[in-house]
Amino acid sequence: LKRRTVGIFGVGAIGGSIALRARRGGATVIGFDRDAAALAQARRLGAIDAVTEAEEASRDVDILFTAAHLEPTLKEIERLQIAPGTRANLIVDVASVKLPVVRAAARLRNFVATHPIAGTEQSGAGAARADLFEDRPWVYVRSGDEELDERARGFIESMGAVPLEMAADEHDRAVALTSHLPQVVASCYATILRAADDDAKRLAGPVARELLRIAGMSFDMWRDILRANAANIEPHLRCLAAELQTAAAALARDDVESLASLFTR
Amino acid sequence: LKRRTVGIFGVGAIGGSIALRARRGGATVIGFDRDAAALAQARRLGAIDAVTEAEEASRDVDILFTAAHLEPTLKEIERLQIAPGTRANLIVDVASVKLPVVRAAARLRNFVATHPIAGTEQSGAGAARADLFEDRPWVYVRSGDEELDERARGFIESMGAVPLEMAADEHDRAVALTSHLPQVVASCYATILRAADDDAKRLAGPVARELLRIAGMSFDMWRDILRANAANIEPHLRCLAAELQTAAAALARDDVESLASLFTR
Lengths: 265, 265
Hints:
The structure is a homodimer.
Chain A: E1 5-9, H1 13-24, E2 28-32, H2 36-44, E3 50-51, H3 54-59, E4 63-66, H4 70-82, E5 90-93, H5 99-104, E6 111-116, E7 137-140, H6 146-158, E8 162-165, H7 168-194, H8 198-202, H9 206-215, H10 219-228, H11 230-252
Parallel strand pairs in A: 1-2, 1-4, 2-3, 4-5, 5-6, 7-8
Antiparallel strand pairs in A: 6-7
Helix pairs in contact in A: 7-9, 7-11
């Protein structure tokens, strides 16, 4: 990344972490965020070198990142397609659902759809960490241009992450199970726990607290994800509900032994 | 705890943590475990001063702890009722369900039913830590003898924990929600995830990994808990299943907005 210029659109927890890591690798980082306070914070935290306008952030950079939520990412892709004006030879997004992104970016040159699998339940540049992606998988969707894909893999590796090639629909089915289902479960569980009395809440053990922590995430982010990936999430929700009903029935008929298989490591 | 002798029946993660903390406070700790390897390990780790027979561990002690799973705890309580032979002026258990314990110990002198709310998904003395209970709630069920309860509170505080008085049935309803429901959810979720392909598993984020970690707990321990508290757990399972079905239906009709209330902090 030495002597490269990286433009980052959206300097929250993910964008900020990319910025910190890129700077550590010797890059100059230009940041933009619709939220002026977020932008100022990223500057204060030393995540970005220069603060600029959206157009400028995309024009004079070698690598361009759109690190916003899904809907702003789709809008930014559209803007770049209408008014390219960037010399970047690698444009990357990090949204949590890939099929809508790949479809939206069909005519965008040098674009690779990606998704770093790194947990940040906190949002904002304050939650950014240069080592957020260290040894974590970072999914990318093959662009069809092997040279471009190689640049994307190189960038992912420069972030400390492990490139993992997946098809967009395959990725969306997988995260429905590994990320979106747990999020809805946590949110439903938190809703039930909130209705309980205070003494019950004081007894929350590590699992309950982890579920509550996740349930506190922003609906602004999750609205887009749930809508975009509804078709993949819905069957998993029904499947888990059926498993819980089966377990409830086993408890009701004092047949705890039939639950043993659930506890297989 | 200075110059007191504490007997601990069951030197796993919880019993071992009590032992470490009691020794740090100046007590002499005598340990017993049906599992000879566990006993040897606790000795090796310095959690206990003396290793002994069950009868001996209960005879010459000031405070007696049964820190085993639910069924062995009930058996030990029965043994102590039949053949008291202990000079302990405080006998305490730490099982996860309290109503069966309180009922079994109805005629046991100096007994207080308790439950430390401290997470140890790992088992065995190797997982013991002197600070496991630090600032965590530790439930006790009033015995009816105020002086005895005061001794129990004193011991709980000497463990670094915060005494929390609850009725046995109230406790069992609360942990059904805060501990037992999450455990079954985690186990059902893990069952679904295990059936997925390997790439999906690699995408497991922090929530999924936390659920998998919990799901790996021993059925030997959970069998007793689920059976003893089935009546309290079953309605919560049905309630959560219904919430998941409602969420699934909302996704199916593209009504993500109706899920906003699930994300209230």
